[in-house]
Design a protein that fits this description.
Number of strands: 10
InterPro entries: NUDIX_hydrolase-like_dom_sf, NUDIX_hydrolase_CS, NUDIX_hydrolase_dom
Low-confidence stretches: 164-178
Structural class: mainly beta
Keywords: Hydrolase, Magnesium, Metal-binding
Protein name: Nudix hydrolase domain-containing protein
Organism: Caldibacillus debilis
Cofactor: Mg(2+)
Largest sheet: 10 strands, mixed
Helix content: 10-25%
Number of domains: 1
């Protein structure tokens, strides 16, 4: 089972991103997420993390695949990726300072601009994720701190066999009342 989750909240042509104050990706804009706790499913984790880091309580997010990586030929890791589309008039004024960093709505054209050095690695997989297709595996190869390779492929049957999800009608955001 992978150890982390990442989630993207979309409102119209904007995504709520976090400029992280801590490693990894310190100083870069990225989705919201975190480490899966013991006895927690990936969907429970992302709902808890979204609630803790943004204050937004969701009942469900769409599973979009997994983001995996290999670093300098050795270290491997990955995270479950999720997406939620919020109503166009969803009230969430930003910027918001949190313990994790700064939350702000960023326009998709800004996020995906090829010269944007302040984005983690979203330009590689976010466009496919937003098309509504998938789920996919988005695999990165890093060498000396830089992307040396990237591949997108349909998530193989069984590749996510260790993902345990709650039935949709029993999902709650970290046990909180909405």
């Amino acid at each position: 089972m992978l150890k982390y989750t990442i989630g993207f909240l979309k409102r119209k042509d904007e995504i709520l991103l976090l400029n992280r104050e801590k490693p990894s990706w310190m100083g870069c804009w990225n989705g919201v997420g975190g480490k899966i706790a013991e006895n927690e499913t990936p969907d429970q984790c992302i709902l808890r993390e979204i609630g803790e880091e943004t204050g937004i309580i969701l009942s469900d997010m769409e599973f979009k695949g997994i983001v995996t990586w290999r670093v300098d030929g050795e270290e491997e890791g990955g995270m479950y990726a999720f997406l939620a589309e919020l109503p166009a008039d969803f009230p969430y004024p930003t910027p918001v300072k949190t313990d994790e960093g700064i939350l702000d709505w960023k326009k998709l054209n800004w996020i995906l601009h090829p010269d944007n050095a302040g984005i983690a690695n979203l330009q590689y997989f976010l466009p496919t994720m937003l098309k509504g297709e998938g789920p996919y595996e988005y695999h990165f190869v890093y060498e000396k701190g830089r992307v040396a390779g990237f591949q997108t492929k349909p998530l193989e049957k069984g590749r996510d066999a260790d993902v345990r999800f709650l039935p949709a009608d029993t999902r709650k955001a970290g046990g909180r009342d909405g």
